[in-house]
Design brief:
globular; binds pyridoxal-5'-phosphate; 316 residues; alpha+beta
Length: 316
Amino acid sequence: MPPSPCRALRRDDYLPLEPTDCRHHVLAYLNGQYLPRSAASIPVEDRGFVFGDGVYEVWRVVNGRLFETARHLARLSHGLSELRISEPDLVRRDVLDEVANRLLSESGLLEGEATLYVEVTRGVAPRTHQFPPAGTKPTVFAMVNRFVPPNDLRARGASAITTPDVRWLRCDIKTIQLLPNVMAKQAAAERGATEAIMIRDGVVTEGSHANVFGVLDGEIRTHPLGNLILPGITRTIVLELANALSIPIREDAFTEPDIGRLDECFLAGTTTDVMPIVRVNDRPIGRGTPGPIATRLFTEFRAHLDASCAAMPASP
Ligand SMILES: Cc1ncc(COP(=O)(O)O)c(C=O)c1O
């Protein structure tokens, strides 16, 4: 039996995403078991720990319903297959729904907003770079967190810095190796900014945990899909919404010097939704306030998120 979600929480029950509300974070799923997060532990020889050898996904959850289940599962499956990690049962939709529902319900998160985090590593084996013997079971972990959308920041508009994109050449895989993203985000935080916009060979690739869009000469511009960016699920939805609104789109990267001439700049991501960027490197973008296209796309995105989660059948 899982522990009651009402027991007193200890500090290490909390591994919050930001921004978050930690009151209900109790239950975790690890290799088929449900247990208090504070009791979930990984052997030191887990390849995720020693090599960052694994992938992850984050879902947005509204009133107990996962948003865009299939697209996130497809991206997880793509990452596993590219890294040749065998696909655990959790990558099946019915299993994911069952695990998510139990985590959410027993953590008191069936109402309001939450996130579901899933991580799969190549498993536990003596440390050697090459793959462990066939049959080594992947480590499978999931947890849920209360989520509070950053709406105050959205209303003001966020700020960003630019930073070199020093990542490897398979940024399309959502690996747990996030050190360049961590360093970029920390550099932003130390300069009082929200996000770091990464620049590779003079062009804007993406943010530390969101895709980046610009509005230039009347068109929405963003880096094309490929090995240099993560194919963001929110990115896809934003492009679908912009298309439906007949806003011109060009999936063509803009350059670092272009940033100075943008009418608007915005981010898109699972925990970001659509977020206007009003300053980059302390210089205003457009008028230095959230622009009409980002504002419209956020309104449409939020309506789509709420409608898709409301339309899904209620979890048993
Ligand atoms: C590097 C990077 N780019 C983009 C995104 C946005 O992807 P999604 O919209 O699927 O959350 C993320 C999300 O974590 C990310 O880490």
